[in-house]
TrEMBL record, chain A:
Lineage: Bacteria, Pseudomonadati, Bacteroidota, Sphingobacteriia, Sphingobacteriales
Protein's cellular compartments: Endomembrane system; Membrane
Organism from which the protein derives: Sphingobacterium tabacisoli
Presence of the UniProt keyword Transmembrane in the record: yes
Protein name per UniProt: NuoM family protein
Annotated signal sequence range: none
Main location as per UniProt: membrane
Membrane topology: Multi-pass membrane protein
TrEMBL record, chain B:
UniProt-listed Pfam families: Proton_antipo_M (PF00361)
Catalytic activity: a quinone + NADH + 5 H(+)(in) = a quinol + NAD(+) + 4 H(+)(out)
Entry keyword annotation includes Cell membrane: yes
UniProt domain NADH:quinone oxidoreductase/Mrp antiporter transmembrane: residue ranges: 114-406
UniProt KW keywords: Cell membrane, Membrane, NAD, Quinone, Translocase, Transmembrane, Transmembrane helix, Transport
Localization per record: Cell membrane; Endomembrane system; Membrane
Record's protein name: NADH-quinone oxidoreductase subunit N
Family: Belongs to the complex I subunit 2 family.
Chief site of localization: membrane
Enzyme Commission identifier(s): 7.1.1.-
Residues annotated as transmembrane: 62-80, 92-109, 115-135, 147-170, 190-211, 232-253, 259-277, 289-309, 315-336, 357-380, 392-416, 428-453
Membrane topology listed for this record: Multi-pass membrane protein
Quaternary organization: NDH-1 is composed of 14 different subunits. Subunits NuoA, H, J, K, L, M, N constitute the membrane sector of the complex.
Amino acid sequence: MNNLFILLLLPLVSALVLAFVKSSSSAKWAALGLSVLQLVLTVPFLCQFVPDASIQFEQSYDWIPRLGIKFHIGLDGISLPLVLLTNGLIPLIILSTFGKTLKGNFYALVSFMQAGLLLVFVALDAFSFYVGWEVALIPIYFICALWGEGDRIRVNLKFFIYTFFGSLLMLVAILYLYQQTATKDFEWSSFAALDLHDSTQRWIFWAFFIAFAVKIPIFPFHTWQPDTYTNAPTAGTMLLAGIMLKMGTFGLVRWLIPIAPLGVAAYGQMALILCIIGVVYASLIAFKQQDTKRLIAYSSIAHVGLIGAGIFAWNQEGLQGALMQMVNHGISVIGLFFVLDIIAQRTGTRTLKELGGLAERMPKLAIFFLIIIMGAVGLPLTNGFIGEFLLLKGVYGVGLLYAVFGGLTLIFGAVYMLRLFQRTMLGTGSKSNNAVTDIKGHEIVVLFIVAVVVLYLGVFPNGLLHLSEASVTQLLEQVKF
Amino acid sequence: MAAIITLSLLGILVLYLGLFKAKSALLPVTLIGLLVALGCELALWGGDAKPIYSGMVVFDNFALAFSILCIVTTGLILLLSKAYFSSISNNVAEYYCLILFSLTGALMVSAYHNFAMLFIGIEVMSVALYILVGIRKTDFGSNEAALKYFLMGAFSTGFLLFGITLLYGATGTFDITGVREYLIANPQQISPYFYGGVLLLLIGLCFKVGAAPFHFWTPDVYEGAPILITSYMSTVVKVASFAGFLRLFGYVFVPLHDFWPPVLLIVIIITLFIGNITAMMQASFKRMLAYSSISHAGYMLFAIVALGATSTSSIFTYAIAYSLSSVAAFAGLILVKRAKGSDQFVAFNGLGKTNPFLAFVITVAMLSLAGIPLTAGFIGKFMMFNTVMQDYHIVLLLLAVVNAAIGVFYYLRVVVHMYFKTAEDEGGAIVLPLSFKVVLATTVALTLLIGLYPDCIIGLL
């Protein structure tokens, strides 16, 4: 069982089936079952993957032969971790919704989105990539706007138009590159082999960069993010922050930099500086947040800023750190959002001022919360440490000053994360705490899995690093600037 | 030619059916007639096409493809008409007959090989429509629309005719191949009359397809006309006009490509911005569709100005995608209007809950019009952009991209109303008659099918 196509097809089939399930409880279990099946189907890929630089499990079908469009998919050391992340997180996200009453259509949208995400990660043809990129956007728009809260309609429309505009720019660049290829096709390899003029590569850089920067989001393209994250239902926020933003960082590594190295040579430093500005800026805003969900939204901008900086540093440590941290951030952020959702459900508030002393009432939650926070802060023996260490080492390779400012994320992160923990779990409790009960059932399962992964990757990061090492080395040799 | 004859005879037959009060036979007979016409067109497919009837018409694959699209779209629209026409008028036969005559004109416009035929085709197509738009005799809006459409239509026909005359004066022939040969033979000393003729033809055709700044009739006429007639105008008439446009500028005037593309470019840019920005501000779904049809005309003109090898197939793909989505959207509008009595966006509130199937179909139609992947509309836009890119009009493409992003704003608006807002008063429940179910299911299935596997369409032309 190592047919990559089936891995893309199953979520689509699941979505089709789930769309017609009316009862909430059967929809939940069916969705969980199907997503676990998807995860199980992913395992053979991990087992049979040979950690060298080659593209494996490749499949290519003619899609629109008259335009040279192929449905070309495959896995390498860069995409495999993200495929694992996607298929690993979706069951957790589905499990985290077990406390809510949601019909089949919600889970159908989640599955549909999974198909789009996977296509983005495995596509080796720019057309397929673009289709996956857009297909992932539709379901998350509906998830956030249908089950969201507050000013959800306006906020999500902004999110949609922002990202859609970005991706249309990318489409323009893709079409241009297509016209340039000698073989008139959309293959990744043909695009990467193009030898374009300096000035051309510069605008290609911008077309791709804006598309990816909006998705990630990199400062100053981040303005949609805090509102969208805050107003989305928790499962939607998890999808957005846990998986979807990795589409952007992955796009930088897979498409932008190999296609427009000269563009990166011209503007890469500027992009790196924007990423670092994002780190500092978002951290400073996170300090002042009273809304817990918004706080994590800003912390997410800071974290991915560092990932972006690591990618634009374009060296072994930076890239490997970025890949590692993409996975880590996905896991941690899901844990964080879930904890905050549990707290908000039990106490009825997300405002820090009104919270406090919850550890007394919820000791189990406090333990898991602490572990996840440690991971997010980057304490040694948690997953975040390895990733951030590598990232900073990579950024240091470009310039000391960048590393210093990038390194602020560790300090700032510790400040706002520990403040979050302190204000919610410690201190004197408010009256409303009396009725609060500790976590149970599916909540324990989700948080336990997250905590175990956080610790496991902190102690044994080598498995993950080993997967991507050869691919990263080869990519660095191929693309120099 | 058999199809044009069939349809003309069918129109007269339908009139007689109306005379003898055979109301229930009208729709079946019309549909069977359309099928026969479709069969006639299909039989000619792929044959060697020579101009026939003294070079008046030519049934090449280009003409056949657009004719088939027009016939199929008309069939779908007529399927929606079952209870519709009888609800607004007693003389139902008139509708069928006039639509059939108009369709005959549309077929002529897609197959003309002589300027006289182009003129006759456009007139046959339009005159029937002047009546159809104003057919609700007691309705003020319908009358206003008919008068506006008639005045504007007559005006634009004047331009067209004057343009043809000037071309004749310069070249001495009405035959389009003859005109083209004149251009190739005299690259240096083209008569100034010729240039004037080209510009006047351009203006006349821009009137017909509703491109800015000649679009002012579109919103009012689309709004005032009965919904089914609006859907017919915005699909069949538009598609046929584009076929005519493309044959003229993509074949006859190609040797003159230094002259007219800049003019057309300005028209396109104005059309896109006016269409999209005005569509954003509409509170009525019907009016929004009218303005969006203006902006779609802008996108389709792109392919004409690009003059690439793929122009024809991209316009054709785009026209299919656009027609399918428009029919679905108008079908939804008819149902909603019937139940709620309003064509404002608010009438769509809560549709996602009360009628998930209809809401899903409208959503797919909107996503297709907006050009989101996995729908036919995306393939259409993709090919259109690709055709433009072949000429490296990158700035033009960037303007198109900005407009596509604006488009999402108003297309999603109806989706927002359907899914994210709840209806205040329930109004009448929406019942889907079988014919509507068939049309909606067909359009949505074809939209998704072409979105997933467009090769079957792209390969045709």
